[in-house]
Amino acid sequence: MDRLTPVRLWPATLAAAITLVIWFILPVPSGVTPEAWHLLALFIGTIAAIIGKAMPIGAIAVVAIMLVAMTGVTNPGKPAAALNDALSGFSNSLIWLIGLSIMLSQSLLKTGLGSRIGYGFIALFGKKTLGIAWALTMAETLIAPVTPSNTARGGGIIHPVMRAIADSLGSEPGNPENGSTGRYLALVNYNINPITSAMFITATAPNPLIVSFLLKGTDGVLEMTWGMWAIAALLPAVVSLVLMPMVILWLYPPAVTKTPDAPKFARAKLNELGPLLLAEKITIGVFVLLLCLWAGVPELIMGKGWAVNPTSAALIGLSVLLLTGVLHWDDILKCRGAWDTIVWFAALVMMAEFLSKLGLVGWLATSIGNTIDHLGLHWSVATLLLVLLYVYSHYFFASTTAHITAMFAAFFAAGLALGAPPALLGLMLAFSSSLMMSLTHYGTGTAPIIFGSGYVTLAEWWRTGLVMSVVNLLIWGITGSLWWHWLGYW
Fold this sequence. Notes:
Layout lengths: L8 H17 L8 H19 L4 H15 L7 H8 L6 H19 L1 H13 L3 H15 L6 H19 L10 H21 L7 H11 L8 H26 L10 H12 L4 H17 L2 H6 L7 H15 L4 H5 L2 H22 L2 H14 L5 H14 L7 H18 L4 H14 L10 H6 L6 H30 L3
Helix pairs in contact: 1-2, 2-3, 2-17, 3-4, 3-17, 5-15, 5-17, 6-7, 6-8, 6-12, 7-8, 7-9, 7-11, 8-9, 9-11, 9-21, 10-20, 11-23, 13-15, 18-20, 19-20, 19-21, 20-21, 21-23
């Protein structure tokens, strides 16, 4: 305790100032209640603190929960009811789905199964650098449904495999003569992450939040199940994953294009891991079971009475891993990412829900919609404009969660007011919420890990991010919209 690490002064001061200005100085707009406006002040202050990294996001969430409870903005004059409102996020099953899924994914790291999958694909497809890129792509895609921490997946599991391959090819970070191969693989390593994050509800933490926004924004009509989301993402995601390594190859071609020794290196790594262990076999079995339950296979085969809630399925999987000893309770207690996610997710979901209940989101959506409506645009052009504004405003965010929480509900409601088909608009905004991660070296937690390895300069990273954002938006906007129309979603 000799050295304290208090709140960062300037970001905290700025966040507090923004909150106080909105609360006390800015007039409450017509059509907005004082309670809704005051909660907006707390919400924007919280987002500002997250962006400025005044404290760890979990700590900021605790302070936000305290402020909602103490100010009574959700239930004026009723302290006990206000406290219950402030803590209501912890009863949200979607929040626990993500927390439990992060705990489940620890088995990939603990057993070494994640690395085995990565090296296995490289042993099969790694004779060319482009083949290595596709091998990394397939490896991350395979584990994406059960690793809701995209940072753990891209930075903790796939990135060490990528670095080991680059080292084996003699590619050193920052070396002008042989570093281009590592640069190429690092850029591919990162740009897989936004695409796989878009593919499954359980592939990144904010996706369940989006599901709840879609459900509330359409009064329960647009209910995206795990299977519906995965099917909707399937075709555009496959196209993006196939083309992405080729686009980056065109942007920054590697010095080494043929890698006949890479499969040998990967097989040597697999030999070090030895035969498939019992713990790995159990983990594979649990993940297959989870995918079946999340995809609704029992319900499809045996009827609605056999439907299993996704969070209940995650509890089943985690219980099996604990009962068999693959994971120990200490592993769960040490899973800081899961507990951290549950806390900050609960705070942000709670604030977002009450902003909707108090009518603030509806008012904001009407304001945005009226502004765009005055331009006299067709709903298709207006939707495109909304999506582009939503995606490229990510340059100002260092957290996808903060971005989604701050903007998704309002932009979705605005698009609906402009006449956009709910499913088309919802899916474009939902998938764009992951695809926008590609833009910067701070856009999500995976980015600093891979950028920090030193293979890619800042200019190269931003140029690639901008190009890939355009490519991905074109693929998902054109291929995706046709695919969703064929599926009957809109």
